[in-house]
Amino acid sequence: MIGESSQEDKRERERMVKDQIERRGVRDKRVLAAMRAVPREFFVDREDREYAFHDGPLSIGNGQTISQPYIVAYMTEMLAIRSADRVLEIGTGSGYQTAVLAELAAEVYTIEIVEELSFRAQRILREIGYSNIHFRAGDGSLGWPEAAPFDTIMVTAAPDRTPERLVEQLVEGGRMIVPVGRVEQYLELITRRGAAIERRDLIGVRFVPMTGEIRKGEA
Question: β-strand 196-205 against 150-155: which pairing, if any?
Fold first, then answer.
């Protein structure tokens, strides 16, 4: 079992939010509360626990990473998630971003292509007590058609181009944030307006590549 966060971890988490997130301009109170609530130390490898609140990404094995705390908070704030939203997350990874989304939304549907990571995240998130998360081990570039449409979509792996199959799974007015690019990457915020799609380029980032059908040019 995971147990409880230590007082030192709670102090470090508070310091992380103040120094790495608030000072860089994240202002959404619900997002800040979620970042304070989720025990980041439980989502990193045991040997990296001392770096859990480090201002940067950490390896979680299988060529994947847990994202920098600021990037998690920034992407979450840009999605403007409401308490009644149904959210699709592509790339469960460690499950940390999943937990932040679950603090804010009614339901989270999360897909991870690496089975080992998916099962590990499921165990951790269930032991912490989250009951509003639906898991799938599979190709995230295809989305979750039978559960669509979604109010918001969070993508945490980088395709070379916007994954149109995911855009199609947004509700009218729905929003998606996705890191796009192979060498030079940037976050793209997409809003669906009927047949029209609004696109807004945000900040430069560095994410692991998205795999699956999209790498074959089929998504």
Answer: unpaired
Cis link prior to 149 (omega < 30° from 0)?
yes
Provide the annotated active-site residues. 67
Q: What pLDDT score was predicted for residue 212?
A: 80
Q: Return d(Cα 66, Cα 73) in angstroms, integer.
A: 13
C-alpha to C-alpha distances, 77 to 70, 71, 82, 198, 219, nearest whole angstrom: 10, 10, 11, 18, 27
Helix (H) or strand (E) holding 137: strand 133-137
CA distances from 141 to 25, 65, 112, 115, 118 (A): 31, 18, 10, 15, 15
DSSP 178: E
Global confidence as pTM: 0.93
Please list the ranges in the chain whose pLDDT falls under 70.
1-3, 214-219
pLDDT at 182: 85
